[in-house]
Write a structure and sequence with these properties.
Layout lengths: L14 H4 L8 H11 L1 H7 L8 H10 L3 H7 L7 E4 L8 H16 L11 E4 L9 E2 L28 E9 L6 H12 L4 E11 L3 H10 L7 E5 L3 H11 L7 E7 L5 H5 L9 E7 L6 H5 L8 E5 L5 H6 L11 E5 L9 H10 L5 E5 L5 H11 L7 E3 L7 H11 L7 E5 L5 E2 L2 E2 L1 H16 L6 E5 L9 E5 L5 E4 L1
Parallel strand pairs: 1-2, 2-4, 4-5, 5-6, 6-7, 7-8, 8-9, 9-10, 10-11, 11-12, 12-13, 13-16
Antiparallel strand pairs: 1-3, 14-15, 16-17, 17-18
The protein binds zinc ion (2 copies).
Length: about 475
Amino acid sequence: MAICPQCPDQVDSSEEDTMKVYSPLTLEKLARQRLLREEALAISALKDLPNILFPVMFEEAFTNGHTKVLTAMIPVWPYPYLSVGRMIKNLNLETLKAVLEGLDILIAQKVRSSRCKLREIIWRNRYHDVFGICTRSYGGLPRFMTQKQPVQNSPGCGVKKEFKVTTQLELMMGRLDESATYLLQWAQQRKDSIHLCCRKLKIQGLAKATVIEIFNVLHADCVRDLELLRLRIEDLAFLNPYLRQLNNLLHLTLNHITDTLSDSEISQLPTFQCLKSISVTTVSFICGNLKRFFRCLKKPLDSLSITDCVLSQSDLDFLPYCLNIFELKSLKLAYISLCYLHLEPLRFFLDRVGHSLEYLELKTCGIQDSQINILLPAISQCFHLRAVSFCDNDFSLLFLKELLHHTAQLSQLEREIYPAPLECYERGVIHTHRLENFCPELLDILRAKRKPKEVTFETTRCSKCTGYYIYDLETQSCIFEI
Ligand SMILES: [Zn+2]
Ligand SMILES: [Zn+2]
């Protein structure tokens, strides 16, 4: 806990909000807007519209709510994909209905326009998080597909229908939003020709009827990414049989699950055959149960992130013996108090993953001088590390220097974050001039061995305003950040 020197009379600087960048409308844009005002004219002009203008015209019609134009554009869409980014304005039930109406026309047509290449509509999908309208699919799938060929699915999707609509489904407070509800029902009624592909499923709060409805329509094999948020024990028990169907799940996120689970309840959690990453934030049952929880791993894990949980000594002791974790590329332990634990098991663990680890974050773990000393030999052997963060731990200047002597050996490092040494704080106040004095010498330790790219030293956050200071390699001075 510390307070920054400028906190008492911190001025609210909201000037930036009032600054706006104005760009003049191009003539082409004006022409498009004018055309769209005359919807009938716009629709009849589609046949002469060059392919390259389809995405901009679609975006214009979308953001301005010209739904009739949207509907008319679908049956002549000249690309295999139509991606509607999450951030686009007017992403609502009306625009969704207009797009699906266009797809209905396409499904019903006996003879299709030779121009139409549309195979897949990607609606608000995390796996393709573009800003506007895009004509490519994520992951470099083939751009050209001939008509009447079933959609080429990415591995594991396995469903071949004439058209595919890809989306993510989010159950918030137990409910789907009105667009998702509509899409689900629409796809259910057109099962023969539409594959509704859901890559990401997020469940926050539970309504049993909605879960049943979702799993009636979606193909469980398509789901790659599952996030379970704020669920109770009984919710998990209800979900288990459904989650067991998610055979191709790659990423599991558990967030704010604060009920404690009994041993048998934990062992009833589903196992996922091909899980690649686990992220756990504020989950109570992890404490003392890491071993039981990791039983779900069947293939080597790429990424493990544990944030804001309590870990017991037995959890740490288990880590180096956990199977299927030795090809880990990313390890994050953050907001976990490690200061009262023996860190030797963590050192053995780092020894074992040293050949594969590319990202290591030990942030806000309260790690002390003597503890980092234990980890140093292992850290200096992680030769593939590209990014490290040790910020917000309690290192004195002496041990911070030791750490830097070890990370200086790691030639692949591109980004490094270190805590400001304890000497930068006195009576709970951050002394930035001290940080400014220490940092050149600290950077020299790295420079003696290699050319560092991005290095920052960060102070702890101010307990009043949550601001903090960083000193970085580029500016070579202390900057206040919020
Ligand atoms: Zn402050
Ligand atoms: Zn699918």
